[in-house]
Design a protein that fits this description.
Layout lengths: L3 H7 L4 H11 L13 E6 L11 H14 L3 E6 L13 H17 L4 E6 L4 H12 L3 E5 L6 E3 L2 E3 L3 H11 L5 H8 L14 H11 L15 H20 L3 H4 L2 H14 L4 H11 L7 H10 L14 H6 L2 H8 L16 H5 L23 E6 L2 E8 L9 E9 L2 H7 L12 E4 L20 H5 L7 E3 L11 E3 L19 E5 L4 E4 L3 H8 L12 H9 L18
Parallel strand pairs: 1-2, 1-3, 3-4, 9-10, 10-11, 11-12
Antiparallel strand pairs: 5-6, 7-8, 8-12, 9-13, 13-14
Helix pairs in contact: 3-9, 4-5, 5-12, 8-11, 11-12, 11-13
Length: 562
């Protein structure tokens, strides 16, 4: 039987089976809907409070066509949606809640497979975490990136160029009128950010894992090929049921190593480190920061896409997109890993070639000889920290400077534009209490703005260190995810203004240059900050969230690691 799971609902003996059939027929379905047809759930993260996913209703219609064509019954259902631009304090606070929503919605309802409609940053990992835990066949259909923004003669990448232009506005080099023009033209279609931010990274990694059809991730949201791919994915979902293609069969350790390799070749978002660790944990696969650094050292960065490079996701797609990039690094991948199509990764990417070597670089002329992300350790980050080295200033990747410490983000915002802020180009800006428990939720506060006084002096970058995350669209010499975080007594908690900090990216070091006994004395005076929540989901989050190097999942949701 193709659909043993839904049949258990609709063909159970007695009144329960009768009532379930009757209530589904109340939606206008004919009686033959129960004649051996598999049920495919369509998990839709559409929301008007999530501009990236605002077009997923249309995508769902195309998926339904594919399911029906393949002989299945499509049943769409909603889950919470995480709009990166709107949610307070951060969507990361609610990624685990969405993952639980997805898991329990799948587990509690009569479906034999599920199609995951995602796009915005945390919706993709949340859906994959939930589907991995639920364990039925699942396929990802992202909404795709928006088209490039345009202001006067400039093509604009949402997020990355917005931040750069805002610095011009802060320093008086753009007028109020010009700033308003940019606001109306930087994000002009549905879809997620059109740079290699977290959304583009995570949908690309879903494809690299084998969880979406080849070529699916990078099609722009308004492109009709997005709907074609959605329809084909609906057909594939039905085929996956009989084949028994569950997430556990596709998302193996080797598949996660492929995803890490692709992450490094893309120059992708640092957030992907946290998300991949959490996703693997749901399948009892232990990924560590050392896995990421080991793979980064052997993987060239080939995607010349903002913020690491010069182009946009639209250009990346026209150049051949993810399959072409993966073909270029095929020798670094586990080619026999299974995909949702039933084919291997190797088979799926074999025919794809780059159409533009300026966008998808050759291995002989990479954007960077190493991958986009480096992992740092030292007495300031015993459990690790990360830096997006391809989006940093090369001259700052090895740096020694004195710290200026912000106790909180509010303090930073109050001081950063001050004309008498006691910093110079050599200063290391440090911000604490921004981690999973300290913020709470580990917001994307790590891209500390450049002090206005330095921007006016022509300084465009400086070393910044925090236990926060950073938006994937951000850039600069920014050290993130310092673990353990300061709020639970990590070393960042005892840094004082004037202390020397050493960053050596090549040596993978982040060190506080003060004697061990001084550090110990400061720790003896440490007191944790007040809790942010005493009830509801906030309390659950604070009680059970793990640290960044463990994926920030809840400690009770991941089984024991292998």
């Amino acid at each position: 039987m193709k659909n043993p799971r839904s049949s258990a609902w609709f063909h159970s003996p007695g009144y329960p089976g009768f009532s379930r059939r009757a209530w589904l027929r109340a939606e206008g379905f004919p009686a033959d809907v129960f004649d051996g047809k598999p049920v495919v759930g369509i998990c839709n993260s559409w929301s008007e409070l999530n501009n990236c996913n605002a077009h997923l209703r249309e995508v769902a219609v195309a998926v339904k066509r594919g399911v029906v064509e393949a002989g299945g019954v499509p049943l769409e259902f909603p889950t919470i949606s995480l709009g990166e631009m709107f949610m307070h304090p951060t969507t990361m606070m609610f990624r685990n809640l969405m993952a639980m929503d997805v898991e329990e919605s799948i587990r509690a309802n009569p479906m034999d497979a599920v199609v995951l409609l995602c796009g915005c940053d945390k919706t993709t990992p949340a859906q994959l975490m939930g589907a991995a835990s639920a364990g039925i066949p699942a396929i990802v259909v992202p909404g795709g990136p928006m088209l490039a923004g345009r202001w006067r003669d400039q093509r604009l990448g949402s997020g990355t160029d917005g931040r750069k232009l805002f610095d011009l506005f802060r320093t008086g080099r753009l007028t109020e009128e010009e700033w308003c023009e940019i606001e109306g033209s930087i994000a002009r279609t549905s879809g997620h950010c059109t740079v290699m931010g977290t959304a583009s990274t995570m949908t690309s990694l879903a494809e690299a894992l084998g969880m979406s059809l080849t070529g699916c991730a990078n099609i722009p949201a308004p492109d009709s090929r997005r709907m074609v791919m959605a329809e084909l994915s609906g057909r594939a979902a039905v085929a996956m049921i009989e084949a028994g293609l569950t997430p556990a069969r596709i998302m193996t350790r080797e598949a996660f190593e492929n995803a890490i390799t692709v992450l490094m070749a893309l120059g992708g978002s640092t957030n992907a480190v946290i998300h991949l660790i959490a996703m693997a944990g749901r399948l009892a696969i232990r990924l560590t920061l050392d896995d990421f650094d080991r793979i980064s050292r052997r993987t060239p960065c080939l995607a010349d896409v903002k913020p690491s490079g010069a182009h946009l996701m639209e250009d990346f797609f026209y150049a051949g997109g993810l399959p072409a990039l993966m073909n270029r690094i095929a020798g670094l991948l586990h080619g026999d890993c299974l995909t949702v199509s039933g084919k291997s990764i190797g088979e799926s990417i074999a025919a794809h070639r780059s159409q533009n070597d300026a966008v998808i670089r050759t291995r002989e002329e990479p954007l960077s000889a190493e991958g986009g992300i480096a992992v740092l350790y030292g007495n300031l980050a015993p459990d690790g920290a990360v830096i997006k080295q391809t989006a940093a200033s090369p001259e700052l990747l090895r740096h020694r400077g004195r710290a200026y410490v912000f106790e909180t983000r509010d303090q930073m915002l109050a001081e950063i534009d001050s004309d008498d802020l006691p910093v110079d180009a050599n200063t290391v800006l440090v911000m604490r209490n921004c981690g999973p428990k300290g913020a709470p939720g580990m917001p994307e506060w790590g891209h500390i703005p450049m002090p206005r006084k330095l921007l006016e002096q022509g300084v465009r970058d400086m070393v910044r260190v925090s236990d926060a995350r950073m938006s994937g669209v951000s850039y600069g010499t920014v050290v993130l995810h310092v673990a353990p975080e300061s709020a639970i007594g990590g070393p960042l908690a005892v840094v004082q203004t004037g202390d020397e900090i050493v960053l050596d990216t090549e040596a993978r070091k982040l060190e506080l240059v003060i004697p061990r006994e001084v550090i110990d004395q400061r720790f003896s005076r440490f007191a944790p900050p007040p809790r942010h929540h005493d009830r509801g989901y906030g309390r659950l989050f604070l009680d059970h969230v793990t640290q960044a190097h463990r994926g920030c999942d809840f400690d009770f949701l991941a089984p024991d690691y292998k």
